[in-house]
Amino acid sequence: MEISGLVITFNEETWIGGCIEDMFRVCDEVIVIDSYSKDRTVEIAKEKGAKVIQQEFLGDGPQRIHGLQFCKNNWILNLDADERLEEDSYQFIKSGKFFEDLYDGYRFRRNTYFRDELINFSGWYPDYACRFFDKRTAKPETTIVHQDVKGKNILKSKMHLRHYSWNSFNQIISKKNQYTDWQVQEYVEKGKKASSFAPLIHGWVSFFKCYIFKKGMFHGLDGFTFALIQAFFSYMKYAKLIKENKK
What we know:
The chain has 247 residues and is α/β, with parallel strands linked by helices. It has 2 domains: 3-166, Spore Coat Polysaccharide Biosynthesis Protein SpsA, Chain A (Alpha-Beta Complex), CATH 3.90.550; 169-246, no CATH class. It is built from 7 helices and 11 strands. Strands 1, 2, 3, 4, 5, 6, 7, 8 and 11 form a 9-stranded mixed β-sheet that branches. It has a two-stranded antiparallel sheet with strand order 9-10. Helix 5 (169-189) packs parallel to helix 7 (220-246) and helix 6 packs antiparallel against helix 7.
């Protein structure tokens, strides 16, 4: 298919095997950029036929950019370890129609799962992510968290990815806490400031948007809970920034 699979990993033994298998359905090679995992991630990746390159973590965007040089093909399927192609995206890539399109990248809608439950409310859907692009004209941004892909003509498609995001609330809290630390680091490096009211304002706006406009209110306790999670970490991001600025 002349497609390279690219995935960055750190301690992803639970997910990496399935991810590589999924990629090989449409890719003729899979490259894993691993940040010196402590578990069986590297062993499993090699068993599944992937080429593994180890690199200290540079940040989300820079780590993906680093991996591009090891990909022999121009078209890149850049999934996260806990992502899979849904049938509509698989059929599209398998068809090879993208070779004839005018687009150099495709954003997919992510179906996010908490345990086995689809969370398609409170701002957790469609959660667009660009995971398929032509590296000649498109590539990941250099942001260290929640990077996007920039290109000449990227399509916001209706195709889907399956995202096995969280298995427990502890995992959500842990990952969100790490993400906000990275975002604050990026803000500080850019000289971003925040007023003392910023945490409260951003927290309330996030909750209102997720609970009201993104239909959390129609999903009972789960709708309230996941809207509150979004709001809390929006609050914490700016609270952390204020503390860092005071240093």
